[in-house]
Design a protein that fits this description.
The protein is an alpha+beta fold and 391 residues long. The chain contains eight helices and 20 strands. The longest helix is centred in the N-terminal third of the chain and has 25 residues.
Length: 391
């Protein structure tokens, strides 16, 4: 039986292909359309109900084909807004778009569709196939989605590890490596109760040694090793993923050092992309001064609970007073990067405003994504402010 709805969706996408698409690309895409049709037609409604394993295998072929179709078009730059809307209606592709779209709480990820890159790597252990279909690298952070169709990556609370949690991610052993160096990462489940997909964020920060942080400058292109361990499996799902920066970037630099209360602060670089705004912070020592001597000379109100770090936070504001929200927490050390949401439009000037938290705020009830904390009391340090001009 022909799936008329699927057929209509595929024909709609075909009609929207651009004239400048090469014959080879058009041929490959037509082959992919046919795989999706044949896979769907080969599974009867009764088989879908009673032959779970066989149906899953065929569904995975269709999933992979659909992923290749959509991601190839997206990554090649041939997707118009009209075609993007059509692709979102096709099963599986809609899920990929939703991971990068408005359902994600990260403002940068919400508008990432124009910049995602096709990876389409798969690894199978036993009856679980793990896939990294797409990623995004804007020069400051790496975002990738990892999927295991038919498998639950989330651990169920209070269930035995050998039972309901088999196939869940073992977060204690999850690692992302750049040239053998483990990087700091975080992930979030993106598809509700099924929990078969996660969005992973990787930053340029690593621990060296284990209690302090260092940052690296990513090149334009490099390979990233991703090891994803699942409970109940002896070996991790390992990927070596090629990463290429896919966004424009505006880089503002400053050699100016601000001085106040024995703090020597240099906001050395601000990187602005359509996905992220990244601030590079560095606390400078005087000639011949050690880090320990610098910290000992600074009043206690600027330091963390253990007195071993400078606990300044930062606001970034444009010439219109628009303030960016931070993305997650950031490490505290002598030098580090702070991530913020992207600017909606490129500003003319940017003011970096250091502050101390006098009183912690609270997130609004039911809030999701990046939010402003209510009732937070800040003490700004105007002597340490830096103003950068965008040329």
């Amino acid at each position: 039986m022909v799936n008329t709805k699927l057929e209509e969706q595929l024909k709609n996408c075909q009609s929207l292909l651009p004239d400048q698409l090469s014959d080879i690309a058009r041929s490959k895409l037509n082959e992919t359309y046919q795989i999706i049709r044949e896979t769907d037609n080969s599974i009867s409604p009764i088989q879908r109900k009673i032959d779970v394993s066989r149906t899953f295998n065929k569904w995975w072929v269709s999933t992979a084909a659909a992923s290749i179709l959509g991601v190839t078009l997206i990554a090649s730059g041939f997707v118009s807004p009209v075609m993007a809307d059509a692709l979102k209606q096709i099963p599986v592709l809609g899920q990929i778009y939703s991971l990068w779209g408005e359902n994600n709480g990260d403002p940068g990820v919400q508008q990432a569709e124009d910049f995602i890159t096709n990876v389409n790597q798969s690894v199978t252990h036993g009856n679980v196939t793990m896939n990294i279909p797409t990623l995004l690298f804007d020069g400051t952070r790496i975002l990738m989605n990892i999927t295991t169709p038919g498998n639950t990556l989330a651990s169920e609370p209070n269930s035995p590890p050998s039972d309901a949690n088999k196939g869940a991610i073992d977060a204690n052993k999850f690692e992302v490596l750049y040239k053998g160096q483990p990087l700091i990462w975080s992930y979030e489940h993106m598809d509700g109760e099924t929990a078969s997909s996660i969005m992973v964020q990787v930053t340029s920060t690593y621990y060296e040694p284990s209690t302090t942080t260092q940052t690296i400058q990513f090149p334009e292109q490099f390979d990233l090793t991703v090891n994803v361990p699942l409970k109940g499996y002896d070996v991790p799902f390992q990927f070596v993923v090629p990463v290429t920066r896919s966004t424009p970037v505006t880089v503002l630099t400053s050699e100016e050092t601000k001085h106040h209360d024995n703090i020597n602060l240099q906001n050395s670089k601000l990187e602005i992309t359509p996905i992220t705004t990244q601030l590079s912070v560095e606390y400078k020592t005087k000639p011949g001064q050690s880090v320990e001597e610098m910290l000992a000379s600074i009043p206690s109100k600027y330091k963390g609970a253990n007195g071993g770090v400078i606990a300044l936070q930062y606001d970034i504001v444009d010439e219109h007073g628009v303030q960016l929200k931070p993305i997650g927490a950031h490490p505290l050390s002598e030098s580090y990067n702070v991530l913020f949401e992207p600017f909606k439009t490129l500003p003319r000037t940017v003011t970096i405003k250091p502050y101390l938290i006098v009183s912690e705020g609270q997130a609004p009830a039911g809030a999701k994504g990046l939010v402003e904390l209510k009732n937070m009391v800040k003490e700004y340090i105007p002597e340490l402010e830096t103003v950068l001009s965008v040329q």
